[in-house]
Amino acid sequence: MTSNAQQPNRLSQGGRIDRSRKLSFTFNGTRYQGHPGDTLASALLANGVDIVNRSFKYSRPRGIVAAGAAEPNGIVQLGSTEAGQVPNVRATQQALYEGLTARSTNGWPNVQRDLMGLIGKLGGQFMPPGFYYKTFMAPASMWLTYEKYIRKAAGLGRSPNENDPDIYDHRHQHCDVLVVGAGPAGLSAALAAGRAGARVMLVDEQEEMGGSLLSSRENIDDAPATSWVEKTLEELSELEHVTLLPRTTANGYHDHNFVTLHERCTEHLSDLAPSANGRRQVRARLHRVRAGQVVLASGAHERPLVYGGNDVPGNMVASAISTYVRRYGVAPGKRLVLSTSNDHGYRAALDWLEAGREVAAIADARQNPDGELVEQARSKGIRIIAGSAVIEARGEKRVSAAKVAKIDIAGFKVAGPVEELACDTIASSGGFSPVVHLASHTGSRPTWNDDILGFVPSPVKGMTPAGGAHGVYALDKVLEDGVAAGSAAGEACGFSAASVSQPNVKNLREGAAVALYQVPHLKATLRGPKQFVDMQNDVSSAAIEVATREGFESIEHVKRYTALGFGTDQGKLGNINGMAIAARCLGRTIPEVGTTVFRPNYTPVSFGAIVGRHCGELFDPERYTAMHQWHVENGAEFEDVGQWKRPWYFPRKVNGKTETMHEAVSRECSAVREKVGILDASTLGKIDIQGPDAREFLGRVYTNKWAKLAPGRVRYGLMCKDDGMVFDDGTTSCLAENHFLMTTSTGGAATVMEWLEIWHQTEWPELDVYFNSVTDHWATMTVTGPEARKLMSELTDIDLDKDSFKFMDWREGNVAGVPARVFRISFTGELAYEINVQANYAMHVWKKLFAHGDKYGLTPYGTETMHVLRAEKGFIIAGQDTDGSVTPEDLGMHWAIGYDKPNSWIGKRALTRPDTKRTDRKQMVGLKPKDPSVVLEEGAQIVFDPKHAIPMPMKGHVTSSYYSPTLQSGFALAVVKGGHQMMGDTVYLPMADGQVHEAEIVSPIFLDPKGERQNV
Amino acid sequence: MFYILCPYCGEHREEEEFHPKGQAHIARPADPENTSDDEWGDYLFFRDNPRGVHHELWVHAVGCRKFFNITRHTVSYEILEVYKMGEQPSITAESLASAEKSQGVQVGDGGQQTVGASDSAAKDSRGTKV
Amino acid sequence: MSNAQQFDTRPQGEIPVESPLAYSMQRSGAPKAKAGTKVTMRERPFLGQLTLRGGAIVLDEALREVVGLGLPGEPLGLVQDQAGERSIQWISPDEWLLIVPGGEEFDIERRLREALGDAHFAISNVGGGQTVLELEGEAASEVLKKSVAYDVHPRHFSVGKGVTTVFAKATVILRRPSEERWELVVRRSFADYTYRWLLDAGEEFDIAVEN
């Protein structure tokens, strides 16, 4: 590692940096020093680092161009450790801290000596727009190979290979007025709204609030502008309902004034968040703000002029020069040439001169520049070349000279002899572009304003632009505009305007600007030196011209063909210039060409901030039943069913070896079929239905009949949508004449609840019935198997006699001393009791069942065993055996369809449509593999003729498939076209590995077709 | 992320509390058994996708669980009004168009339409779909 | 009578009972208060909770008679008795949540059913299905801002208000019975997630859990 302690470009005084302290940092392996208050960019410039990157496509050396979010070149990879790697950081926005480590994003083997640059040099001819599309399209199979190298050569950083150890956060925020940007307009707006009493949030992306005032030449109230900033911030911080968020970028402006903010809490301190008071600190926050009103005071970006070689290090936008000189005490060169189309650019030359540096000349595109700033420059003896511009920058790794010539803007040609001025820095100003990005996020296309030669935001409901973002640039007018916007926003939220006196600011007489975007060259655009429009994406004026020549007329197509304004750049510096060039080539005006859409995010947001704390164990809710702890302690493997964690199976340790799932499930199945098993069925949805019309309502939402279900009885029901397709099933019990308890599938609980409500609220409000979810109130345990009655009899006072408590009855009583409703329903086909107790007592009951169940071989079983047992009985699971295209008829469940019910229940009409009457619909059948050891794959396609040429006609698919220890064979449920008429036929299941399984179509009820086992 | 006024709770809530339930004012035919297959198919499957004013059914799912209607502009996403079940919208494509016409604003050809909210629109929407 | 079945789910004898957070507190711990503790969480388990459905006028009358507390007059209203032990919260135009000391709910339901007679209404016991978490302390609203999109600023969320809303990726009934105290009515199956979320969100404020 080399060391360079010098800061050759650091001025001896001035700026908002702390010269008393030094910070060391490393860039591309070299150690440098800067000061607190520096950005990485200002420190690099202070150290005379010209090349910060290689360009994306042509690998040209690039230097810092801007001073803020608009920077296209100074994009670095940050981080001294692998876990702390952050790609896509703009050096102009990154505060310097001790130990900062950064690398260029592009450049191989390094930025000084880049082999890819060779291609870049040739690239003028070899890499036209659409180069990648055109070159690497064929053969398609090679794209992955190409892509790997293209990405390496042209990437914009890399993500870390290790987990990010930091924590991130979200905050939901609400305010009356959100002010975006804390420059003169934003501060005034916040003051006006804050004094009026509104809840105000003022956010600014920079390290310090103040915006342009931090580097302003102008005085406010006869003092430096920064004193007014300090005074205003002090007042704002004392207002109770005002929140100030520095280092916070408003990145996305969404519907109905929803704005996302990215706050970087510790990224100015170190690359990983330091601890504070022994606690981890939040590294970054995503604020999700719902604002009553938004004041868009996001300022304006200065447009560079587009001239030959404008990307050689040493070319900068004029205002960036002022910022580096005045805010950071850095003059990034010795001798300056300024090329400008307006008065504002003159500030850079004046600041440069005052920093003790030399101004070679100002090339002013106007014939008669005459504003006050122009006069100041003239009086200081600066040479002004009217009617001219820099047409080309000379130099390779740093500007060595500027070619200046008279130009004819209207004729787009050079109008006089070329003068070459030696210099190392060229500043350019083509005027300002209001930062309309956020307003555009809402879908509103900005409006062209000829007076300011720029796009301003179109009206967005609840949004007021102010200051630079509004196309207002003179400081006194900006302050006025801010107050007006803040007052108006406050008033819109119901706060009457407070008085805010206008500070005293000298009004500068300003000469009219001239519209200049692309500077003409002696050679035609396609033959002259490259003029860059979008430096981050390496888009040149020639590329845009080629795109228009190749027929891309819409600016959106030009954008996509050339990559203009893509990615993290979002066209901050280049979009307007690009549109102007497209307009010139197409012979249209800029407003006719229009803008492309700016999209969120304005600047990159780290994934950590987006994720917040929704990660790791908090990624998604885990829903637990009341017996969850028992399941954990008894070694359950869990299955996710929706958000529920359900025991999947309970592997035992046998001779020191843990059972496989197959072994455990076989054991659990046998226990239920031969002795007794227990399932935690608490996750089933439970809906309490009360009201005089409850029964009528059930008759309309279920396919079967409910008119005669007596209290104490339970019935199975199928629910269809009005298209006749099954969407859920379950049992409903009659608790009293006007009172029912409905159960739904685990996954369907919320859906069914909403389903009942939508029909009640929108179609049948006249029915007197209420639905309340009681899913969580009850814990449910299913005790099932031949020994179930014996076990139950030890614990309950309910009469279990088979004639008084029959299959499909329910009774209430005590189980293990706890009041319980017990339902004789069976999903296993065995004798079964479903015990429901209030969930807080469930663990007690569950444990008591085990205390008594040992002697009967009570075995806990999970969802896998449940699936095997129910499939042996041909019981469907809605959502597994059905997929929204299966009718009750398709399932062979005619017995559950009440065609003669008096009302037209949901789904009935659709069952007589021609499509649902087809006999070749996919119908539910059982499949018995010819080889009993085969367990068919769920989802496997079924064909009738395995010798048919590919593609074979697919006749159905497997919906459920298991191995049955009872049948000692694999078996499956499937839907097969016309399957109900194919009993005994053989079908084929060709697999991906070339095997073809044979299976016989059988009844889906594999066990106990008469239901004798459950009915004992 | 919409900010939706729930007409029952009486205040604006975040979109994440709501579920959209599709086009509003689709009445189930009163006598399904005597409805033709075409009409039934139309009721089941066909919905409009206007550019402009659209009446939608929403439910305040994480909230009061009540269903209600929203009149929304599908271009600007502006919610023009909310109204309870059983009520009719006061803003429709027709009403907006006539308001704009009276202000001398030209309404683009076919730019705005609505369905279901008004009788004429409901009539037009029957059997004219392709 | 409404011809519905009423069922007292509470056992008579001494039966071990587990709150929805029993497992969570054991697994995730319950941090003690520290010097810097700015928010405290506590569970109020085993309360009696009834969902009341019906018309406001008849329910209001019956509740005044049986509980001595009328319905809140406005949507999103929360009323409570002087001791703060019994409360009624507006949930929906035809739905209210009644929370009473554990053990009172069965008798209250019975007397309400009597008082309501033939009116169309529904009462569902939901006490086993949800639990109440309290948050107290200067950072309570900061913890809530990390967790709910709903605006908890005092200008917007005054004492005596309650809303059903989204909490992280679950749902919650959030209420403000007093200036310094927030209540979260949480569904049993989501209680563990909510608890872990609050511990994590409260870490920077040294959250403490009181049992």
Round the mean pLDDT of chain C to the nearest integer and report it. 96
The CATH architecture of the largest domain in chain C can be given as 2-Layer Sandwich
Distance between the termini of chain B: 33 Å
CATH class of the largest domain in chain C: Alpha Beta
CATH C-level label of chain B: Alpha Beta
The tally of strands of chain B reads 6
Taken together, the total number of domains of chain B comes to 1
Oligomer: heterotrimer
The CATH architecture assignment of chain B turns out to be 2-Layer Sandwich
CATH topology of chain B: Folate-binding fold
Query: What's the Cα radius of gyration of chain C?
Result: 18 Å
- What pattern of helices and strands is seen along the backbone of chain C? HEEHEEEHEEHEEEHE
Give the amount of beta strand of chain B, in percent.
25-35%
Largest sheet data of chain C: 6 strands, mixed
The shape of chain C, in one word, is globular
Query: How much helical structure, as a percent, in the residues of chain C?
Result: 10-25%
Q: Helix and strand string of chain B, N-terminal first?
A: EEEHEEEHH
Structural class of chain B: alpha+beta
- Content of β-strand of chain C: 25-35%
Provide tags for this entry:
heterotrimer, B: 130 residues, alpha+beta, Folate-binding fold, 4-stranded antiparallel sheet, two-stranded antiparallel sheet, 3 helices, C: 211 residues, Gyrase A, domain 2, Alpha-Beta Plaits, 2 domains, 6-stranded mixed sheet, 5-stranded antiparallel sheet, 5 helices, 11 strands, globular
Written overview of the protein:
The complex is a heterotrimer of chains A (1016), B (130) and C (211). Chain A is α+β, with helices and mostly antiparallel strands and 1016 residues long. Chain A has six domains: 3-130, 2Fe-2S iron-sulphur cluster binding domain, sarcosine oxidase, alpha subunit, N-terminal domain (Ubiquitin-like (UB roll)); 167-300 and 434-492, FAD/NAD(P)-binding domain; 304-430, FAD/NAD(P)-binding domain; 525-605, Arc Repressor Mutant, subunit A (Orthogonal Bundle), CATH 1.10.10.1100; 678-869, 2-Layer Sandwich (Gyrase A, domain 2); 917-1016, Aminomethyltransferase beta-barrel domains (Elongation Factor Tu (Ef-tu), domain 3). Chain A is elongated, with a radius of gyration of 38 Å. Chain B has one domain: Folate-binding fold (2-Layer Sandwich), CATH 3.30.2270. In chain B, the strands form two sheets. A four-stranded antiparallel sheet of chain B has the order 3-4-5-6, with no helix packed on it. A two-stranded antiparallel ribbon of chain B has the order 1-2. Mean pLDDT of chain B is 83; it is low at 105-130. Chain C has two domains: 21-46 and 128-211, 2-Layer Sandwich (Gyrase A, domain 2), CATH 3.30.1360.120; 48-126, Alpha-Beta Plaits, CATH 3.30.70.1520. The chains are: A alpha+beta (1016), B alpha+beta (130), C alpha+beta (211).
